[in-house]
Amino acid sequence: MHTTLHNVTTFFQSAGFKKYAKRFGIFVIALVGILLLACGGLALYFNQNKSEIIAKINTKINENINGKFHIGDFQYKFLTGLPNFTLALKDVELKDNKWDTHHHTLLKAQEIEARLNVWNLLRKEINIHKILINDADIYIYKTKDGYTNSDIFKPKKKKSPKNKSKPETTIDEIDLNDVHIIIDNQLGNKLFDFGVHNLNSKVEYNGDDWNTDLFLDTQINSLAFNTVHGSFAKQKELKGTLAVSYQADKQKIDVSTKNLKIGSDSFDIAAYFNVGKTNSLFGININTRILWSNASHLLSGNISSKLNRFDLKKPINVNCDLKGDLNVHDDPKIVVQAVAKNNELTIPDGRIDKCNFRGIFTNNFKPKNGFNDPNSAVILTQFSGEYQNIPLSIPQVVISNLEKPIATGIVSSDFDIERLNEVSNEKWIHFSEGHAKANLKFQFDIVDLYIKKPKFIGNVDVDNASFHYIPKNVHAVKTNIHLDFTEKALLIKQIAYKHKKNTIFIEGKIDNFLNLYYDAPESYGCELEHLLSQYRS
């Protein structure tokens, strides 16, 4: 170790090392000197040609807008953005020709940096390498008659054969920092509002087409596809990289991203937006695995207010598909699909354990009736679970008209009857053995998300049940019950049970059974008590 250290010290003190170190130092000093001279030369060039450069920038901008462009001040930024020439524009405003009517300024920025290609600049040409917009407000406004202040940008002129070889001015990179962007579409009743912390985009061009990987870190203040119903993902942070491309011949923007963060959850998204004057159709498809409560908080108020009354303990797989027209006043078409496996579902009436289902939400249940709450539905298939320890199986249930919800479906159950002992805290009956099966078509209203007066058609069978009816101290064994529920009556096909040494058989019919049960429960209770007392020894 001592020998190695001595050799290193000897090398640094050698004449050869000192010679090369001196040359390297001179090289570095020369390089810095050249760099300073270049920057000084650029600064001198800017000061001598300041008015001409600003005139050329104004000319470039005014060639492409129908409006007013104002710069409060400008300066050259020394040593910034090398090897490009960086020009900082201060207090920039951009207004369309109808600003006096609507008073929405398209762009108001504290500072915009334009980094220009040095070699083109020396040839008296303006080629913008990069634009940085800091501390700005962007307000894109569309009136109810279809006019938009973004029409400030003139359409591109078709090149003549003589000018086809002349390159157009392009912007290769865009950076936004602390920029507030609002897209206010009065025609389509839509409002998009973003507080952009940072946006970075390097653009690659292929003729009139382009593509970019766009990094975005923003807060969603409003993502309202219908301002009447409120915003999606309100006050959520959005962060990730999006692959964005534009096809000029189709006037269409495509967007795709993986693991985009919205709040604390990750999303895979594929979307398209038609931006032609006669075509404003869009589509957004979202895939994620998310907690029910988190998903509900990402939806608009008219949907989340209903979903918040439910919950699932474990995350579920969700796909959401939105399709609509940015210039149409109505909601977009929304289809949400979800899959739950071995989950715990909380509902206003209780809890369902070991819950499995495939669910679909649509706001276009009947295709000709529009996209709205009365035409919205929730469809559950392959539903299974345990409600108060009773197993349930529902092949399909449809909850339609979410303005005045009605649920219809078929429910079946097959279980040992002792499980009923855990259903009620009031110990009025105790089962010791037996088996029950039920297969019922049902329909019920949902009032404030609670089941209201369910109606049943189908049968309930109980075999070999033994129980103790505690209020009257009735002990029964080997009881068989076969009931048929029809639209008009309850048919008692058989009630047979043994009490002490007697075997009792009951058959009969109760008209308007469900009406009696719901509308006059005290009368129903008296009838049941009377029926049982007749067979007590």
Automatic annotation (TrEMBL):
Keywords: Membrane, Transmembrane, Transmembrane helix. Residues 24-192 form the AsmA domain. The chain crosses the membrane at residues 24-46. It holds the Pfam family AsmA. This is AsmA family protein.
